[in-house]
Request: fold
Amino acid sequence: MNFQTNLKTNLDTYIPTVPTTQIKIVQRVNFEVIDWQRPWLSHLRESGLLIAKSADWIEAANDLAKLQALFNANAKSLSFNPQYGISDQLGYEAYIYKTGEIPTRDNFHDFFNALIWLRFPLIKQTLNHLQYKEIQRTQSLSNAEKKRGRQRDAATLFDENCAIVVSADASIHDRLKQRQWKQVLFHDREYFSQTCEVVLFGHALIEKLMSPYKAITSHVWNISVDSQWFTQSVDERMAFVDQYIAKQLSQGFVSTDFSHLPILGVPNWWHEQTEYFYEDAQVFRPARIVQRRK
Reply:
């Protein structure tokens, strides 16, 4: 569905579902500082521009959520509401699952989070459900036993800092895991661009890239596709990614399932991509040498 289709324009009638004592947020985010031409924003550009130009971006995000008929894993309609009364991450995830309401602050972090919910609702739904199940599991434990656990840690890393590397050549995934940075990203950059697409998911990662610096590194989730995937529209490609990865994640995963990628090393994502750029071992770290015991 095209994000602009049938978007409601009557922004003055919005009443946030918060206590009557709560004052409606006065928008302070300066969206003019976002460079929407950055290549890593291509999959969010249409909806992002549409929401950013509205008088009330939270209301506009809700209009799109209603248009897409979005629900969480608990069959609750999704909505973005000014944050109140949610003091910690445990409460935040449980609140979303129980109510369908996503506590939202007027800042870039939560703006990009809203865009990701709109673009990848099934993945976000799955991550929230995994978090909630872990919260429920640990409630019966003693205080000494209560820990976030590997699943919650992994879900948070995916949610905040994940980049999805889609490739028609699975060997590229292997070579990046082996940290063949310069060969894959510099010498074979044309082949990489023809057979791979890097899609940013983590909203904290996207926020960091508002002020790009070389050392920004993502947690990577790899998926393989056939070459026909690249001939599809952006909406079709992202819908596939959403469905495919949500199904994968629903089986459970841990932090060791990720690999890593210095994100500004993606070909054509930064203007200083000389050979020397990829030789910076503080950023593009070499593969670890495993010494065998004698």
